[in-house]
Every structure is written in structure tokens, then in C-alpha cells.
Amino acid sequence: MLPLSKLSELPTSSGIYLVESGFGTILYVGQAQNIRARWLKGHHKFAVLAARDDFLSIRIRWVNIPKWLLNRAENAAVSHYQPVLNKRMPPVV
After folding, report:
1. What is the rounded CA–CA span in Å between residue 72 and residue 80?
2. In this predicted model, what pLDDT tens digit does every residue of 29-42 receive, in sequence order?
């Protein structure tokens, strides 16, 4: 688990990532074939997260998942956590 200030330490592996508040509430769930690159190239939710009062306590945790299983794993995590920043359910392929 890493704070948003340490994005360069994220793994380069494929997987799903969970963005959580300092209170442990899951704010967003996503997937990437390279988690570090996904965030360092400018994640589309970063501005929304940066505008939050609790920005300094927001963390990212991840689970390494093979590429072929990313959609199913993300779908299961979104269904389970129902994060406020996920607008739609990812397709199950």
C-alpha cells in the first residue's frame, strides 16, 4: 500500500488497484496492464482525488492479476466495494 505521493514505487505488473481514503473506504477500483505506467502517465481520477480534503491520506493498494483475468477481477472488486468514483461496471469478458 502506497500514498499517492509515491506513485513511482508502484509495480510494473498487471493487476487491479484500489484507491482508498485514510479511513479505509474504497474510493475507486481500476485495472492496468502496467499499474505504475497507468498512474505516472496521468490517471483520469487524479484531479478528483487531489481536490479532496483528505488527499494526503489517500493510498493505493493493488493485487497482481494476470492480464487475461483483469476484467473479471475488476468487475468483482467494483461489485464488492461499490466505490463512489466508479461510474459504471466494467464488462466481464
Report:
1. 12
2. 999 999 999 999 99
Separation CA 85–CA 10 (nearest Å): 21
Q: Say how many C-beta atoms besides its own lie within 10 A of residue 20's C-beta.
A: 19
Which amino acid, 37? A
Sorted by where each starts, the structural domains of the chain and their CATH numbers stand as 2-81 (3.40.1440.10)
Q: Which amino acid is at 4?
A: L
Closest among 22, 17, 7, 87 to 53, alpha carbons compared: 22
Question: What are the two backbone dihedrals, phi and then psi, of residue 14, each rounded to the nearest 5 degrees?
Answer: -80, 150
C-alpha cell at 51: 481536490
- Tell me if residue 77 falls in helix, strand or coil: helix
